[in-house]
Amino acid sequence: MDFSLGPAAETFRAEARAWLAEHPGGTGGQEWERTLGADGWIGLAWKGEYGNRHADLAQQVAWGEEYARAGAPGRAGHIGENLLAPTLETHGSLAQQDRFLPAIARGEELWCQGYSEPGAGSDLAGIRTTAERDGDGGYRVTGQKIWTSLAHEADWCFVLARTDPDSRRHHGLSLLLVPMRQPDRIEVRPIRQLTGTAEFNEVWFDGAHADAGHIVGGAGNGWRVAMALLGYERGVSTLVQQIGFERELSGVVAQAAASGATGDPAVRDRIVRQWAELKMMRWNALRTLGTTDPAAPSVAKLLWGGWHQRLGELAVAVRGAAATAGPADWAQEAPYELDETQRLLLFSRADTIYGGSDEIQRTIIAERVLGLPKEPRG
């Protein structure tokens, strides 16, 4: 099987590489999003014309790989570009597309995702956040969301809430677009992680206003729209993610060679296994690129989550006792400085949980793909 991307993608790759070399991203953030948007690099996969370039799947992979290889900053706008935008193109009204997509393409508005709650993480159908009609022709959103990435920077949040108070489980839900700049109605609380950083947040909605025209797919259709949105979380992004994995693995190998850890046959075996599994993940991602295989997203998540955790463990094994020595301010209040090995180990502990836990992915494959009997629900 030919796993090359083809000549058109390589031409696109050269253009992307040249542009990235001329535009250092610094620390990223809003200004970097505007820079990307000004030259049309936001929304390569979109169908509509909003000032964005258009690229096929292979070209999108080439751009993502070059972006990762250039060490460009993490994208503050990826949730709006890669999750909300394709959802609006498929399920949103023309008015919603015209209002929100151009601002995302220009890098002017940032988004966050209001799905998980303290009692509704993997079991998303158990959400309790409500959206009630108000006298102003809109909705008042009340409830708590958790693990909300970039909520402290976002201008808007797409919120899954219960608009039918008598509904249960998957029924009576709606996906509302809620402005975050409501200081008396929305509170964002950072969640400090093992690494000392706080990319995630708790978000408290206390009667936050949402326009009635900003329900995606219509009231009561939130579960269908929300599940469609989750389907956009993987695909091209999986291949791009692997470039970062490749860089991390190369760092571990270089450290093993420098420290003499490669003299241990067990360490050599683990390094080779990590390398081989990373190659396999790339081939699998290329094989399933653009397909509608229902198992592909779950299989990909199972593969990379466990792989990345094992890489963190290998990095510590290579470093040895030195990896357990914390910084001088280790016992102080976060944030504190960790070295690259420590960050890799600690952050990767969450890889088999966020984005759909391993247990949930295996259940999806068993029930929806293999047709096995459904697991008893509590």
Q: What's the CATH topology label of the largest domain? A: Butyryl-CoA Dehydrogenase, subunit A, domain 3
**Structure summary, number of beta strands:** 8
Average pLDDT, rounded to a whole number, is 86
Total of helices: 11
Q: Which spans have pLDDT < 50 for at least 5 consecutive residues?
A: none
Q: In CATH, what is the homologous superfamily of the largest domain?
A: Butyryl-CoA Dehydrogenase, subunit A, domain 3
Q: Reading side by side through the largest sheet, how are the strands ordered?
A: 1-4-5-8
Distance between the termini: 45 Å
Give the C-level CATH assignment of the largest domain. Mainly Alpha
Please state the overall shape, judged from the principal axes of the Cα atoms: globular
**Main sheet characteristics:** 4 strands, mixed
What is the alpha-carbon Rg in Å?
22 Å
**What is the succession of H and E elements?**
HHHHHEEEEEEEEHHHHHH
What's the structural domain tally? 3
